[in-house]
Structures are given as structure tokens and as C-alpha cells.
Amino acid sequence: MLKQALLIAGALSLTTSAYALELTNPFYGPSKGTVASTTSYSFATKTAKQKDAGAVVQRDKDYDHLLTESLSYGLTDSVSLDASVSNTWQKRSENFLGNRYTDKDDRNIDWTLGATWNILTGPTKLQVSADYGQKESNSHDNHGAYKYVDAGVKLGHTIGIYTPYLAGTVERPLFQSKFGDHHAKYEGKAGVYAYCPRADVAVDTGVRVNYDDTAKETAYTYDLEVSYFLTDNVAVSAFGSYMLDGKAKNSTDVYGKSAGLRLRAAF
After folding, report:
1. Is residue 257 scored above 60 in pLDDT?
2. CA dist., res. 32 & res. 152, Å (int)
3. N or C: which terminus of the chain carries fewer CB neighbours within 10 A?
4. Residue 39 pLDDT more than 60?
5. Distances in Å between the alpha carbon of 11 and those of 6, 89, 99, 115?
6. What pLDDT does 175 receive?
7. In sequence order, what are the residues at sequence separation of 6 or more whose Cβ sits closer than 8 angstroms to the Cβ of residue 24?
8. Mapped to the 3 state alphabet, what secondary structure does the chain carry?
9. What are the tens digits of pLDDT across the range 20-36?
10. Predicted confidence band at 9 (pLDDT cuts at 50, 70, 90)?
11. Quick one: how far is CA 60 from the chain centroid?
């Protein structure tokens, strides 16, 4: 009787573990020998208004179309090798002291290569990640591609269909021109993820804070993503963000928002 009870408990724990790792879960990672693909398209705008004595003296606005393909390969059931490639199409409009200027540019290829480790995979989840990347889309002011490394940590706990979590990332530039960006970037997020298997729907929402030491910019942003599972291994999502508040150096106010679509698949 005891042996049967232990077998049932073991089977339930395996089922719970698999259930907790659906494609859209913030802590998802591909199992050993499998590949996870995420294809995303987004459109974003960002506006910076610099003021002097209360009057706007400079207004810059960026319009970005971003297409990204990310792949993860399971080296083990808890460690994956990750890579991504993306392209940004940007239109930038500048208005300085009444002088208008518009710059349209194909910002070429950005890419990353790194790894993710799911250290804890039970009800309490702990994930760490690191990667190296280069951004041609940030090359103009940096006299060449912007090169960097970043490291992140994510901690959460599943209660029923809900997984509240905290996440943080630090980004450090590398090998930059002496005229380029040498300052760190920081990100923190508090979120809640929910998955309803009966409806095949998942929701991931939260508030994010970003700090860029180059522009002394602090931004608070609300994020929302709603996903629908076409099959157990394919999910489509709509996502968006809205900057609640943003401030930068030289009395600059910052505004921004984005929206996009995402396709996830595992095979």
C-alpha cells in the first residue's frame, strides 16, 4: 500500500512539473535534445522632450519596427543554449529649437548568444541566464556595433494556476569605442503569470523599471501578454507595454509604448 502511494505521488509530481513548464511560462526551458523557437514582431514609439524653464526646447521621437527570432536548445532538462537574431527598422524625428529633422534607417542585424539554467523547477522556481550580444541598431552614437554582456535572475513560486515572480537583469558594455556607451543598464520586474489549461489561455503581466546610466534615464513600464495554445507545442500571443513614467538627464521627460505579436513552438 505504501509503495503504491509513493508511486502515485511520484507520478503526480512529474505531471505537475510538466504542467508548470508550458511554452509561455516565464521559467520555461526546452527539455534535453529539443528546440524551442520564438518569433516576435513589435512596433514601438519613444518620445523624449527636453525642457528649459518649463518650455520644450528639443523633442525626439523614434518609431521602431522590430522582428526577432530566438532559438533555445536543451543541453539537459534544466540547461539550454540560447541564440537570437533581430532587425530594427527605425524612423527618427528630431525637433531642436524649431529645426525639424527626420532620419529613416534600416538598422541591420542584432544578435545574442548565451545560456539559461533552471536551478529550481518545483513549485518554487529559480532561473539564471547570461549572454553576449551586439547591436547594430545602436551603432550610430557608439561609433560601431554596441557590444555587451548581460546576466539575469528570476525567482517565482506557483500557487494553483498563478506564478508570481521577480526578475532582474544587469547589462554591461564591452569593447566599446572611447566615444561610445560605457555605462551599465539595469532592469527589475515584478510580475504574475497565470495559465488556464481548460481554456488554453495564459496571461503574463507586470510592472518593469529600467535604468540607463548613460542618459540617467529611469522608466516605469506596464507589460501585458495574452497567449492562446493552438496545440500543446504551439502558442500565439499578443503583447504590449505602456511607459507609466520616464525621466532622464537635462530635465527630459520620456514617453513610450509598444505592441506586437509572438509565435512560440517546441519540437
Report:
1. yes
2. 22
3. N
4. yes
5. 9, 49, 69, 30
6. 86
7. 193, 195, 202, 204, 225, 227, 229, 235, 237, 264
8. CHHHHHHHHHHHHHHHHHHCCCCCCCCCCCCCCCEEEEEEEEEEEEEEEEEECCEEEEEEEEEEEEEEEEEEEECCCCEEEEEEEEEEEEEEEEEECCEEEEEEEEEEEEEEEEEEEEEEECCEEEEEEEEEEEEHHHCHHHCCCEEEEEEEEEEEECECCEEEEEEEEEEEECCCCCCCCCCCEEEEEEEEEEEECCCCEEEEEEEEEEEECCCCEEEEEEEEEEEEEEECCEEEEEEEEEEEEEEECCCEEEEEEEEEEEEEEEC
9. 379 999 999 999 999 99
10. very low
11. 24
Average pLDDT over the chain, rounded to whole? 88
Nearest to 47 by CA among 85, 95, 101, 84: 95
pLDDT at 91: 87
Q: Is 158 exposed, middle or buried (0-12, 13-18, 19+ CB in 10 A)?
A: buried
pLDDT of 177 higher than 70: yes
pLDDT at 99: 66
Count CB neighbours of 76 within 10 A.
12
pLDDT surpasses 90 at 151:
yes
- Other C-beta atoms lying within 10 Å of the C-beta of residue 124: 10
| 126, three cell numbers | 529559480
Strands 79-96 and 99-121, sheet pairing: antiparallel
The total number of residues written for the chain in this structure:
267
- How distant, in Å, are the alpha carbons of 171, 172, 244 from that of 181? 12, 10, 26
Partners of 236 in the β-ladder: 228, 263
Is the Cβ–Cβ distance between 138 and 181 less than 8 Å?
yes
